[in-house]
Amino acid sequence: MSDQTFFADGLSGLEAGARAELASDDARHVRAARLRPGSRLAVTDGAGRRWEAELVSLERRRASCRLLAPLPPVPALPLHLWAPVANRDRSLWLVEKAVELGAATITWIEWERSRSVADAGRADGFLRRAEARARAALKQSGRSWLPRLHGSLLPEEVLGRYDGAGWLADAEVRPLLDAGIARRRAGRGAGNALTVAVGPEGGLTRPERRLCLEAGFEPVSLGPAALRFETAAVVAVAVAAAMLADDETEAGDEGTT
Question: Would you put residue 187 in left (φ > 0), alpha (ψ -120 to 50) or beta?
Answer without folding.
Answer: alpha
